[in-house]
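can u do me a favor
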């Protein structure tokens, strides 16, 4: 007698929504030839794929497959406890690159995983050198830009200060001119009232004003 849908799904309750188990079960099914599991994003989708796989089997094969999966999961958890620095990495590469990886692995007497780790370590050193160099260049360019901006600001401030001084001088000269002209008009008016005669005092004052205006 075949198992019902509910019975099949109940056997998959050991699959939980956590990334550690998601990574493992995806890798497990992928190695079994069910490559479409790689597109699953969460455990719900993985359970659906697993359910569809089991539905095609007889009762005995379903129970056997689930038992094997549970046992593999238990072994994986045990290994993880003794080597907590390891994580699952489920990836696919081209046949050509896998062939090269196997060849390199044999030549270096390392497992494929150890070889990948050593290749990553070597590339990481180059990456760090590049990152440090790039950071240094960015810092240098930033420093030059800040220095240039500061220099431009100093020149701008000097120019503004010069303009402000010139405006103050022009303002002072304008006030002096207005005061001088006002005094000259007073002297002329006084002379007109005095039969066009300018007093000695006004004459000295007028001469002084004219000299200052000319200078």
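np, heres the sequence
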């Amino acid at each position: 007698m075949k198992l019902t849908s509910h019975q099949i799904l109940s056997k998959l309750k050991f699959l939980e929504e956590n990334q550690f188990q998601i990574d493992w079960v995806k890798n497990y099914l992928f190695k079994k030839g069910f490559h479409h599991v790689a597109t699953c994003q969460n455990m719900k989708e993985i359970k659906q794929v697993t359910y569809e796989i089991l539905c095609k089997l007889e009762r005995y094969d379903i129970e056997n497959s689930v038992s094997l999966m549970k046992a593999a999961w238990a072994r994986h958890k045990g290994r993880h406890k003794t080597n907590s620095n390891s994580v699952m990495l489920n990836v696919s590469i081209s046949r050509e690159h896998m062939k090269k990886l196997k060849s390199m692995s044999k030549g270096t007497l390392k497992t494929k995983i150890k070889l990948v780790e050593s290749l990553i370590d070597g590339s990481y050193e180059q990456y760090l050198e590049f990152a440090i160099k790039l950071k240094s260049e960015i810092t240098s360019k930033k420093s030059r830009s800040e220095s240039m901006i500061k220099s431009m600001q100093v020149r701008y401030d000097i120019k503004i200060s010069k303009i402000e001084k010139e405006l103050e001088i022009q303002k002072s000269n304008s006030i002096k001119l207005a005061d001088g002209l006002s005094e000259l008009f007073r002297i002329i008016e006084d002379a007109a009232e005095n039969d066009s005669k300018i007093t000695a005092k006004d004459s000295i004052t007028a001469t002084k004003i004219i000299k200052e205006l000319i200078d």
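The longest helix spans residues 112-193. hope that helps!!
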